[in-house]
Amino acid sequence: MLVVRAINEGDLGGLFDLASQVGTGMTTLKPDMKMLGDRLATACASFAETIPPEERDYLFVMEDTANHRLAGVCAIKGAVGLTEPFYNYRIGTLVHSSRELNVFTKMETLYLSNDLTGSSELCSLFLHPDYRVGHNGKLLSKSRFLFIAQFPHLFTEKIIAEMRGYQAEDGSSPFYEGLGRHFFKMDFHHVDDLTALGKKSFIAELMPRQPLYIAYLPQDAQDVVGAVHKSTAPARRLLEQEGMHYEGYVDIFDAGPVLQARVSELRALRDSELATIAPDEDIVHACAPATTEPTLVSNTTLRDFRMIVSDAVSVNGSIDLSSAEQRLLHCGTGATVRTLPLNVKKNL
């Protein structure tokens, strides 16, 4: 069975194995043992609440309990840009007009921006190819929303997610080749590695501060502004289902879209419910629906947060979880859990 749980000190090797599978474009998950070790230490301190909320980095892993293998990873950062610069391009519009010539044009522009500094961030989502089946991707991605719903006070009003931008089959970025290379004079992967290591001062030093006209870029660079990597498209759809949306901010290197939302407007904040694990004999089965939808179920413990997908549903504030499911959640009869339908209800 699969469980998404808070990372612990013994997961460094498995985390490195996952990071080695990721490839380029995800700066928050690189196969660097020192960097991953430091991040794991920060994550453990985050769940233990020994560092301030804005410095926290809640890192979750999906574990296959049959063989104790890590199948995926995801994270939530308490706030971005407070200890190191956080840059994006904001897409704007400049209007040029002349009554005398009867000319009116609207030109899209890129502005170097720190507008999203201080926002909480969803990041580092990666599911091993061996586990990209069934509900696994939804379980991994949506676990973070149930965590936020249980502990909303730990996060800022706005939450964002930087999506990996489009890359060609050879791994190159058309946007970077059309724009960034002119200023950085280095390979895309080298820039990607520097950013992952926190060496971001060169961005402010080398990037122009004035607006850049998108129409001046090569056509293949224009075409990918706001587009995602092909392997990232499913992740984008999941986030949009949960209430996140694109508002014209993109990554400065690959032009991947930045999704954002108010925490209070997320589906998990609106639709998740608390329920009590009850003995079988206390569940009123007659009140249960004839057909059930898969349900996300988490415990309510910060330090040992755990979440699964179950076929059980909450009935009159009670939920009938199997003994195996209770063991996965590290809780038992009488404990409080949080529940949320895995799938978004479609409006008829």
Q: Strand fraction band? A: 25-35%
The count of β-strands is 16
Low-confidence stretches: none
User: Number of helix segments?
Assistant: 10
Largest β sheet strand count, sense and barrel closure:
16 strands, mixed
Helicity level: 25-40%
Order of helices and strands: EHHEEEEEHEHHHEHHEEHEEEEEHE
Shape: globular
What is the structural class? Answer: alpha+beta
What does this structure look like?
With 348 residues, the chain is α+β, with helices and mostly antiparallel strands. Among the domains are: 81-117 and 157-269, no CATH class; 270-281 and 292-341, Barwin-like endoglucanases. It contains ten helices and 16 strands. It has a 16-stranded mixed β-sheet, sandwiched between helices. The two termini are 34 Å apart. InterPro entries: Acyl_CoA_acyltransferase, Arg_succinylTrfase_AstA/AruG, Arginine_N-succinylTrfase. It comes from Pseudoduganella lutea.
Map the helices and strands.
Elements: E1 2-6, H1 12-22, H2 33-47, E2 57-64, E3 69-77, E4 88-98, E5 103-113, E6 120-127, H3 136-150, E7 158-162, H4 174-184, H5 188-196, H6 201-206, E8 212-213, H7 219-222, H8 233-241, E9 245-250, E10 257-262, H9 267-271, E11 273-277, E12 295-298, E13 306-310, E14 314-315, E15 318-319, H10 323-329, E16 336-341
Parallel strand pairs: 6-7, 11-15
Antiparallel strand pairs: 1-2, 1-13, 2-3, 3-6, 4-5, 4-9, 5-8, 7-10, 9-10, 11-16, 12-13, 12-16, 14-15
Quickly list its features.
single chain; 348 residues; alpha+beta; Barwin-like endoglucanases; 16-stranded mixed β-sheet; 10 helices; 26% helix; Arg_succinylTrfase_AstA/AruG
